[in-house]
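for the recovery benchmark. tokens below, seq after
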């Protein structure tokens, strides 16, 4: 009986992913989309193209896809793959922070219960650290218990640039940690950059 219930839940999630267009677009579809068109400048789009090239096995979800999925399903778990000071300034609501250098084994020991039978979305500032963690988890065979695993395209920087909600320990905020001055150039609302919580 439990297996039937699980199969029904998986089918429902599959339908939601298909309706939202999140059921794993092919590499060609990613390359053809305007958000991932080759760009020679320093932009979230050019960085995402490099991430796709370096982490070909990682699937990506756009910010709008995550927003719509979170509205339609509670069967997701978010992992923030940034340092403590970055997370403390702001993060996505209900995100679980994990250290960027966490080993695959330690991740599983600490988070296997959250991960199992869920759609897991990992993010960092722009997607590099989160894609690296997903790759390490896949290579170690630790993503099989999740329904699906995605990197948030453009990371929290793109999320923030699209004026989507972020929170801190004290509630909603508009602040964001820029990682450093160089990477902070990718953020549109420069007056919202902070290295410490506001």
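predicted aa per position
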């Amino acid at each position: 009986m439990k297996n039937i219930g699980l199969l029904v839940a998986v089918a429902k999630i599959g339908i939601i992913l298909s309706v939202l267009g999140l059921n794993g677009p092919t590499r060609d579809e990613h390359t053809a989309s305007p958000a991932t068109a080759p760009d020679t400048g320093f932009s979230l789009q050019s960085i995402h193209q490099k991430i796709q090239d370096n982490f070909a096995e990682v699937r990506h979800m756009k910010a709008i896809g995550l927003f719509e999925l979170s509205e339609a399903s509670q069967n997701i778990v978010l992992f923030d793959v940034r340092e403590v000071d970055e997370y403390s300034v702001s993060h996505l609501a209900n995100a679980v922070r994990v250290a960027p250098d966490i080993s695959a084994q330690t991740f599983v020991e600490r988070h296997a219960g959250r991960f199992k039978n869920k759609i897991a979305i990992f993010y960092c500032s722009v997607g590099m650290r989160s894609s690296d963690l997903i790759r390490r988890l896949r290579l170690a065979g630790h993503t099989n218990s999740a329904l699906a695993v995605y990197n948030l395209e453009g990371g929290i920087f793109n999320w923030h640039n699209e004026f989507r909600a972020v929170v801190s320990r004290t509630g909603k905020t508009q602040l964001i940690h820029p990682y450093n001055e160089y990477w902070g150039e990718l953020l549109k609302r420069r007056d919202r950059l902070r290295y410490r919580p506001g």
